[in-house]
Fold each of these.
Amino acid sequence: MSGRVDSGMAGGSVVTKIVIYGLLLFFALLFLTPLFVMLVTSFKSLDEIRDGNMLALPQNFTIEPWLKAWGTACIGLTCGGIKGYFGNSIEMVVPAVTISTLLGALNGYVLTKWRFPGHKMVFALMLFACFIPFQAVLIPVARVLGLVGLSGTVGGLIVVHVIYGLGFTTLFFRNYYEAFPSELVRAAMIDGAGFWQIFWRILLPASGPIIIVTVIFQFTNIWNDFLFGSSFTASESVPMTVALNNLVNTSTGVKEYNVDMAAAIIAALPTLFVYVVAGRYFVRGLMAGAVKG
Amino acid sequence: MAFLEIKNLQKRYGKVDVLKGIDLDLDKGGFLVLVGPSGCGKSTLLNAIAGLETISGGDILIDGNVVNDLRPSMRDIAMVFQSYALYPNMTVAQNMAFGMEMRGVPKPEREAAVQRVAKLLQMGHLLERRPSQLSGGQRQRVAMGRALVRDPKLFLFDEPLSNLDAKLRVDMRTEIKKLHAATGTTIVYVTHDQIEAMTLATKIAVLRDGLLQQVGTPHEVYNRPANLFVAEFMGSPSMNLLTAKVAAGKGGMMLELAREHDAPILLRVPSSVVQTKLAAGQEVIVGIRPEAITDPDGADRNSTLVETVEAKVEVVEPAGSDTYVVTHAAGREVIARMRGDADVRPGQRIPFAFDLGRAVLFDPKTQVRLA
Ligand SMILES: Nc1ncnc2c1ncn2[C@@H]1O[C@H](COP(=O)(O)OP(=O)(O)OP(=O)(O)O)[C@@H](O)[C@H]1O
Ligand SMILES: [Mg+2]
């Protein structure tokens, strides 16, 4: 890649190069500044924050704010830090991502390899679900959750996220499986494999890239969701994002910026982790879908 | 009773008629090749036999049992696909054993069967590889192995060689033929390569637009094509088809082929046609294969119907073992096949020996062969 850029620029001037890299560097720094401020702030004591420069490195390095954010900060009326809510989020995000990904794969499988009359219509309706704004369904969803006895629980939140994610996951898998050779499915049928065996043994093992794309997409969306989290949960079952908001907006006492920053970084860590681990497959998977689909 | 019987088979996609009443049968151990141009319904017919497509009418019987509504896995068939369709996430051995695994065959038995077939196809060293680590020819071999390993009643092949290069295709063709001779399996084989059809088949079915044109042995289809379509489709270069007029001559009816700037060619009526059925003045199409037009030395000495005609050479196409010589008659190119070392140059006038013992006549209106 860089080789191609170099050779393409060989005739061009050094100035062009300097301008391009200068701009890239400038914007990179610009976008990194907030993260930098968060990081340094989270390691400063409150006094230092009050007196010093926002961009300065911490003079007296302390991890006290992190410990407090995790274990003892007061959110609402309880003072147990964010760890419980972090747990809530994990408890919500793992099943929600797993179920919506599996169901999306299953939908994609049926919509491409077991076509039935009206399959186009069904797919169109599922796609439509991707475009319904969250706000429009809040009240109906709350009502339904209430009727089935799931309001205010993590379980209810999982159901909502699974249903809302289904449109996207189905879209991803349908496009991926559309390019998957049907002859393989036919060969498996002749070999005596049934509906589920073909799915588990033939399709899923070949779905690595699209599974990663879907998992990252669903994980970030569900982990970062605030609206559903704040609408459908009771105080003890709120997810991380809502707890963070409550922590930052607590009006009593002094504002502990360092604790807030530490909590915010903790809240962002899982998505960061997923990107670092699976990020390069993400781009690869998107490309695969784009080229073949 | 035949082993595979197809009776009045029809297939429609919505309003599109793809198969319009196919009647076919094949004996146990036979090798049926379906040929025809692209889109004529070969794959559809094969998939219908496999049970991968539902049928709109008619019956399919395998070994005396109607299988119309049986699932593919219940028909006891194996299929080799054009793309080979090897499971990418499994090794060669797992690919071959998958069908038996799905049928609940115990592991030791599966492994023994895989070993046996791997030995037969000489691919023991490939068993632990994945399909992506194989060459095209090796993949083809594995696909055949996967079909063979289960020992089914009927094998279906859908253009299994069309993804291979020319040399490999010829090798694999021979291999399939040997395999068929060695194992005595019953095979239905789709191809649009008529040489493949000729070399492999015990029975050829020529299909066009969902209708059977002719069913017969390779010899019959090649030498006695049922109509103009089959005549043109089978053989390469294809049969010369020349419009002629029937004229009454001294010794009976003669065929007169007009030529530009030259006297018309007069030929006797081929032995495949009853002379008395022809009327003077009637138009017919003479079908004569390039190898039945030769230099006089190369003509069949046993044939009593060789006519030698002088004509001007237009093009010479050496093809190694033979030389194809093109001349003109009845408004069309006529291709003759001469010896590889024949000394012929464009512009020369040379004698061409027409072997009418191997010619056929067609009715230009109905396109059907005259008998
Ligand atoms: N699902 C379908 N819906 C409508 N028409 C179809 C469908 N599948 C096949 N056809 C039509 O049926 C006809 C026969 O198709 P088929 O695949 O059997 O041809 P083929 O003889 O195998 O050709 P080829 O040599 O190119 O493989 C074609 O005209 C095709 O357009
Ligand atoms: Mg085909």
Amino acid sequence: MLLDGKVPSGPIKEKWDKHRFELKLVNPANKRKFDIIVVGTGLAGGSAAATLGELGYNVKAFCFQDSPRRAHSIAAQGGINAAKNYPNDGDSIWRLFYDTVKGGDFRAREANVYRLAQISNHIIDHCVAQGIPFARDYGGLLANRSFGGAQVSRTFYARGQTGQQLLLGCYSSLMRQVAAGKVTMYPRREMLDVVIVNGHAKGILVRNLITGQLERHAADAVVLATGGYGNVFFLSTNAMGSNVTAAYRAYLKGAFFANPCFTQIHPTCIPVHGTYQSKLTLMSESLRNDGRVWVPQKADDKRPPQQIPENERDYFLERKYPSFGNLVPRDVASRNAKQQCDAGKGVGSTKLAVYLDFADAIKRDGRAVIERKYGNLFEMYEKITGEDPYTTPMMIYPAVHYTMGGLWVDYNLMSNIPGLFVIGEANFSDHGANRLGASALMQGLADGYFVLPYTIGGYLAGTPKLNPATSSPEFEASERAVQAQVNKLLSIKGQRTVDDFHRQLGLIMWEYCGMSRNNAGLEKAKGLIQNLRAEFWQNVTVPGNEKDFNQSLERAGRVADFLEFAELMIIDALERQESCGGHFNEAYQTPENEALRNDEKYCHVAAWEYKGTGKAPELHKEPLVFENVHLTQRSYK
Amino acid sequence: MSKHINLTLKVWRQKNQKEKGHFETISAPDISTEMSFLEMLDVVNEKLTLAGKEPIAFDHDCREGICGMCGAVVNGRPHGALKGTTLCQLHMRHFNDGDTIAIEPFRAMAFKIIKDLTVDRSAFDKIIQAGGYISVNAGGAQDANALPVPQDKAELAMDAAQCIGCGACVAACPNAAAMLFVSAKVSQFALLPQGRPEAARRAIAMVREMDRQGFGNCTNEAECEAECPKQISITNIARLNREFFKASFGSAVK
Ligand SMILES: Cc1cc2nc3c(=O)[nH]c(=O)nc-3n(C[C@H](O)[C@H](O)[C@H](O)COP(=O)(O)OP(=O)(O)OC[C@H]3O[C@@H](n4cnc5c(N)ncnc54)[C@H](O)[C@@H]3O)c2cc1C
Ligand code: FES
């Protein structure tokens, strides 16, 4: 089946205006008659819930943390893009649109990306009005920086804590709506199912994480804003609780999952240091502006870095990419570091790291200059590793960072299930096969503040009203299924912990479905995942009981979903016999080791439909048409 | 370089809010000094689980010192002894072989214990609901650069805005006051022109809500500043007091 993205007709610049005019409106007096569920209160869900409350809808918002202020969005460091062109350096809506389509390696929907670029400016206006203390110049106007290799300065930031400040802004708007009685907040709840009535999403089932009680919630529409699934790799830069559960369970209920194999691996993270490691910490990409990446020329060289003379070092990025050097794009830098380590040249106690050396920069510019630029990062590095990067080279290694894939949505951000909307990192829509720096925050807030509040009105106004009772058979069935899974998990009482399984799954995914992939490895991984999943359901141990605050049980449910979802990623990666953006199949590369697309066969979104346990999912394609940015090969020569 | 150390933990165990808690002694042998404190607890929990016991419940999420979800009192200090560091960023190299470490939840009237080290900090959300926002709806804003903000004011606002809402200030305070938390939010908005129109109402409403939630009174002990992992300054409390008195005496909002 070919999927219809419902992109409005007309010139790209007019599509959103025209569409907003054509969308049916809900009469202001009627808005209070509609209940909307928003699952997830990160940047996407928090902004959506607050805005829907402001408009007059009754909103019920859910998150698994103790407060919406803790969502994973809080950890974003670098900044948020907007096409304001305040620096007068040639930026425009069109350029932001163009860069995003190209950066995504031509696997995103043009109309969505254009709308994102258009809206970017309103986001900054709103955030400033909310009291977000963005960085400013001496004159008191907003400061911008260039980020992630962009040729213009369009990134707005609040020190290294942009995500924190944007999320706290969104949280304060949300708290204002809670006080106004328009939003009811349900923290420490985990969504475990979507309830579908007459083909429409009309409710959810959640577990109260403190009491263990299963709760039913009904509404006129359901919005998922549950973030990305990078933790399928166990180790990632994501927060510990980030998961695929909400999205995956929607998939089990019929929502299509799009491009699940598109994941982004960030080259500069603090390396793994032991088997007990629980997460990886990002070190800002900006470090590659001054740091030089190298490994010893000889494999298994145990000397400390200072004792390795210049002529026995391999500055491999500078050697292989003389013009871009250490500044090659994220995916190229990541893959090269892996190659060196695979060849036995990795450094540090685990041999899974490369050096990022500031000695030359310090010699050239002086310590003070380097300190001003990177002081806080060096301090964070020292806190974690106990080593001083001013005197000894940093060690870095790539880590999973972001997932471009997600639930399939049309131009209205509605999934193929009517009434089920998906926003933020949880959907697939705007970043194609690779996301540019500082654009996830932009997308989450665009979706939540400025897109969904309109499009959901169109759905509500155009759909006959149905008030499902939570006692309906659909809710009954949903609760029974969830309860059965909980019981099952607690009853196995095997020999291995949940984390133990999760860690092993992560290793499989990292090895075979990580930075570079090949068909044989993917096939192998499929079998390994199936075996691991079978063992999980026989040999996992989940302590404690169900009617209690039980963190092991929470994790068990998430890992059970990751174990199934991982296979879908593999299936998707095998289906896409090309390389594009973050998906690199070794069989398809240019002579410069760049991803080689196959536009004839794969210029589409791959959206997967669940067909039942043990059955292969069915592929649906949404063809991608590029009328405004023409298909070209990315090149970094 | 990594070393391995043997530790004895004295951990607060409490099944739920109603039952009484107690310290349990748990040995933590062979802990790598490269682990974070929470990773050390993970290792202990894995062992407890395999031994058929219940793992220690503790809150955490980002493990990067920014979400504010983690926190426990370690040897009498919220987030442990290392300055400007959350528990998730505290590493085991700051401990010695043979150490005994006491670990208990953040304690305060307004923070009820949920289980073991996990506490309920929803009182903080209630305080924000009372006025920790600027009343602006999405869609109504003017151009972001229409209103310049002096750089030094913006920087001071950012210093205050860095609060992660972890509750260490409350746990550190002999009176379990929440003044540092409240003052950080009040200051951030009071310093910015966008926040001025509601400054008086905000200060009064947030302070009243803080009292209603059962937090104690500030008697200038300054323990909060010393323990704050984000090193939020108590000059913010002075600013809150000024805003509060100005509002109480000088404004129509009562
Ligand atoms: C270290 C790091 C740095 C980054 N830096 C940048 C940057 O500088 N610029 C940029 O643009 N992007 C950056 N990103 C990416 C960006 O932060 C995220 O993509 C974005 O914040 C995701 O927002 P979200 O609202 O979609 O999801 P999240 O913030 O992940 O929120 C998910 C929400 O869903 C809830 N939830 C999840 N599952 C369930 C469930 N089953 N039941 C109930 N609730 C659930 C959670 O409680 C949470 O409230 C960074 C990412 C990382 C990891
Ligand atoms: S876990 Fe987020 S601050 Fe410690």
Amino acid sequence: MSQVQWLRSENFQRMLWPLMALVGILLFNFFFTPGFFHIEIKDGRFFGSLVDIANRAAPVMLLAIGMTLVFATGGVDLSVGAVMAISGAIAATVIRPDYVKGVLEYGEVQSLFLVLSIPLFFSLLAGLWNGLLVAVIGIQPIIATLILMVAGRGIAQLITQGQIVVFIHEPFQYIGSGFLFGLPFPIILVLLTFTVTYLLTRRTGLGLFIEAIGANSIASRFMGIRERMITLSVYIFSGFCAGLAGLIVCADIKAADANNAGLFLELDAIAAVIIGGTMWGGRFTVFGSIVGTLIIQSLTTTILTRGVAPEVTLVFKAFVIILVALIQSEKFRQLFSNRMAGEKVRTS
Amino acid sequence: MDQNNVLIDIKRVSKAFPGVLALDQVNLCLRGGEVHGLMGENGAGKSTLIKVLTGLYPRDTGEILFEGEPFSLSSPQEAADHGLSTLYQEINLIPALSVAENIYIGREPMRFGRIDWKQINGDASLAIRKLDLDIDVTQPVSSYSVAIQQLVAITRALEISAKVLILDEPTSSLDLAEVAQLFKVIRKLKEDGIGILFVTHFIDQVYEITDRITVLRNGAFIGEYETQKLPRIELIAHMLGKDPETFSLEQTAGKTQQEKTKTGQTLLDVKQLERKGSMMAFDLTINKGEVLGLAGLLGSGRTEIARLLFGIDRSHKGTILLDGEETVISSPRKAISHLFAFCPENRKEEGIIEDLTVRENIILALQARQGIFRPLSGRRQSEIADKYIELLDIKTPSDSQAVKNLSGGNQQKVIIARWLATEPRFLILDEPTRGIDVGAKAEIQKLILGLSEDGLAILFISSELEEVIACCDRIAVLRDRKILSELSGEAIEETNIMQVIASKDVNQ
Ligand SMILES: Nc1ncnc2c1ncn2[C@@H]1O[C@H](COP(=O)(O)OP(=O)(O)OP(=O)(O)O)[C@@H](O)[C@H]1O
Ligand SMILES: [Mg+2]
């Protein structure tokens, strides 16, 4: 593709608005927030607002990566926040199995492998449950995943018996607050997940199949695409991403809080996916969802650093989401250009 | 005809899309009490003109007068308010709603502030009977065949009392009897002084029903003609932009191909296949290098046979022998693994994937067969797509155009291309030339015959008898979900087929 063609191409157009929104927010900070772009290197580690934003956004980015694929198949996964809570609760329980029985001293230090693999296994299982309901039984995705959204938090509470399970586990805490190659480990995890997802969808036929299923599942089936298998896998993957995000949060605060871990984050993830330019049933861009998450997070940080009350943050957030979503919508742009065209006709 | 009775006057209207000038200074003048044909090849700009007229697209330049007044719409709703009733090419029914709801949606009769369902259902059955159709109007439209859906959409357009009725290829899925019924209704509306704009690719229908014809070619206005004074061959010449002389030669050249004798081996041997409620037990053999046609009226079971053979519906009884071995075809995926291909009649719902590009739509079936982990390279994809774009003359600015931006006939070609790209052994074509223009239709028929000569087995379904006769070596005639008889060789003749369809079943 020549450069001009690429600039006109659908993919680029889709990315244009989110990127511009992000640049806009960053520019605003460049002028009005002193030291916003300042990055310090201490002990070979990067520090600064930008790193901080990316680090804070990491869990939602993971959710958004999984959500993007689900969205592209024409579904939605409302349960990701609850799955985060479950995953954290299981991790904490694996570390301190007797905590809920009131035994407060530590036993042996659990192997990191178990602390990671058991919660992730159950996250996959949660995804499988959603996938079965949607792809095999045929329940509407909103309703199917709503079940686990509500029940999941209850399950997490059962696991922790309603307590906040605090723990110390150095290797596990590294997941949430360690550094690798100078960057916070959660960012590395996101980069890794993103790369794997990208390669798996765009360097194979999978991405195209997902888009085909989302855009027309009957036609896809008639072409021999395994639409059930793929839909199922996509929900399982979303569950996995949520589990990973849950581990990051849990490891970062060194506690499992079944009530609050991942609360409402499914909404942030959905917003990020929409802002990023993924269609509900059709074209998706995982990179766009990452940008979408960064927009939301940098906006939140900006507002907070400007000393605006946190309650107002939500309103701002809503406003920006509506704005970007509107610009993304083809209908809206058409309406706009129709108006302009109408003017032209009338004045000529 | 009254010269002053001009309802719609379109003057020098242009409309461009990225990479395509869809309308270039087009004129059209529609009078009350006339049926006006709008003709042109696939992608000539017919549907675009209609969409500009009814406010679905804004025009770039030009003027539209409605009863002498300047007229500019910004939405199809406004068009309805002005007395324009439109049936767009892509049937826009809501599959999950009932037939009655679809007919009256947006203008439901109210009673005591509530929707009067009884009246809706009653009115709907009456309305639909005007087209000689007798179906249960409380059933969802998705439970009916494409042809019936088309009739429902026509009924909806007819039920809006309007000054102008616009029909974009209303007859593409209908067979002769239904067309005749529709024309009866149209003639009555014409007497009432309604102006009717009628798009079709069937030359016979144009001459039967229209008074005047406007021809477009590649977005340009070619001319307006009195139907009676325009010989057919000239009309076609205007549409294709070819000299009538050369064209008539080509026509005859295509015809001589028909005579061929084949003694292919059997590919498929179907024995007593049955699906309760959709198809009674039937036998069918399909030979390599042979085109087997299915003929029959609406609802006779043609599509049902196709769906059974392709594994979309499961059979309850019976066996299928593939190359002499018993084979269970339980899903399209299985069928495709045996190198079957199925070009479905419902282009929008079962065929194209609107948001994907032309290239992706063409390579998808092949990619699906190769599986996830053996992706076709970008270069290979373009090669395949470009090959078929050229072979089938698909009009598109590039292979990365979204399929939804193609004209209806070109979308149809994309689906054919998709299945040809899989290089099948057995090709099921269900109304493959639906919405395809005269020139391209002949080309595609030639292509099909050529492929069968190379050993491909083809099951050919079409509501156009002429086409079935022209293409097929054998024809199975169906009625009431049953195969009545099989014709071959000399016996393939329109009168014979009609006789079989009309004959009283001996067993009853
Ligand atoms: N929304 C769109 N975006 C881009 N191009 C378009 C769009 N709609 C139509 N076109 C292009 O405009 C041209 C005219 O299309 P149109 O649908 O009017 O053809 P048509 O005469 O109705 O053909 P057919 O007989 O196949 O229905 C085509 O080349 C088509 O690709
Ligand atoms: Mg058209």
Amino acid sequence: MSQETPLLPERDTREAALFFVVCALCFLAALAALSARATYDAAAGWTAEVQGQITVRLVDADRRAADEARDLIAAVPGVTGARVMAHEEIEALLEPSFGAGGLPAGLPMPLILAVEADPALENLAPDLQRRLTEAGIDSRVDAHETWAGDVRRALGVVRLVALSTVVLLGATAVAVIAFATHAALLARRDIVDVLHLSGATDRFISRLFERRFWVLGLKAGSVGALFALAAVALAMSMASAGSGRSGLLPRLSLDPTDLLILIATPILAALAARIAARITVIRSLKGAF
Amino acid sequence: MSIGNPDMILDFAVRLDGVSLRYDSSEEILSGIDLNLKPGSFTCLTGPSGAGKTSLLKLLYLALPPTRGEVSLFGRRTHDLSRNALSNMRRRIGVVFQEFRLLNHLTAYENAALPLRVAGQKEMDYRPDVEELLRWVGLGGRLDARPEQLSGGEQQRVAIARALVNKPDLLIADEPTGNVDPEMGERLMRLFIELNRRLGTTVMIATHDLTLIRKVEAPVLRLQHGLLVRDVEFGGNAA
Ligand SMILES: Nc1ncnc2c1ncn2[C@@H]1O[C@H](COP(=O)(O)OP(=O)(O)O)[C@@H](O)[C@H]1O
Ligand SMILES: [Mg+2]
């Protein structure tokens, strides 16, 4: 009998339910944090792909006018390439809208110039538009960057929602632990009273509960994080089993940051549990003599 | 007799000044009680069941603050002490609760050692002393038994060992012989007396066991209708 029995009884059936709740909260929080993280990757990937890409749509132009516009654009500093898109290319682009049967015969086919430019150059698109207009060429210049910005803004909203979810789940966990500590304190009133009357300080008593909930937070957080890892792994395998073209979906992967999130989850849960327990116990004891 | 002289309370292990107690909105259980216990004194407290003996003891072992009046221990007023100072004061008080209040998940040995553990002492340092104390109260063979495996009398003796284990300056026992046979009752009483004589521990014992009181040469206080009176019938050597 070298090991001292803990002053708070080890096994407590009430804690099974608490364990489950904290576990679920950690699972959801880890998933939300991973989603927030994935939005950074998605935004970065998208931006890299579209940066420096500009399309120029020519209105009421024939092939000769298109070549003329192309030469004018190619001469602008910062432009690394400009070409008239082939008919088939445009049809392929429009296929999702009009189907594989090709465009209706009577539809006028727009002429489109694909322009490649130095990604570092800002405000190139307005500059091109001005030059084309000055040259009397009726055109519409679209920097892909512009709507990449829309995508980025949308991803920013997703990220904000995900981060808010993490914060909300964290606050919920703290509230749940505080509630559970209060219940445990009431359930163990007999023990707490005897310790108190034996001269135990508030810190001594609170440490018993802190240790208990610290361990619970650590265990439940680890299980929750493991489930989150499993969920991401499952989603990844399902995504790669599909077409492989995930479109706007955030790229799912596990990099060091994700692992950090998964490792931090149980530690933060344990810390939150400990602080909640401490505040609850100290506050409750202060009310007594 | 001590008006305006704060040093006077140093002469007392326990002092109550005009102490009253009521629970919630009930009648006053204790009304205007004055009590002085000198260091090293041995006092019995008696009175019918429900008279308020346990309530009075609760004030002494700092489980409750009085509704009115002042409780002083070891020469210090308690009402303005910090929580930590109160905890320190409680460590100088050994209590045998009427209902024992042993921790069910701990062994007899661990229960008896509890105040030392609370005071932050090391198990290896106190183990021999605690075992010897338990042997002294006749529980040498039951160190690892849990309360539920012990008889009422054995539990009571564990409770007594716990109260004595840190050699308190003040020992408060609430019906400490209520669950043991007369022979063990007398033995425990001798134990309290020995403790009082040898270590100078101030002892206050509440009991309604009159035969036991007769055997002890000690002042007897009686609680009646919320008032404390010196019992002339059993008052041996009135102070
Ligand atoms: N916690 C409490 N709340 C309300 N009333 C109480 C409480 N404890 C004791 N009493 C009442 O106070 C009176 C004195 O009780 P107690 O001090 O236990 O007397 P004794 O120990 O002499 O039997 C009784 O009427 C009892 O019902
Ligand atoms: Mg009583």
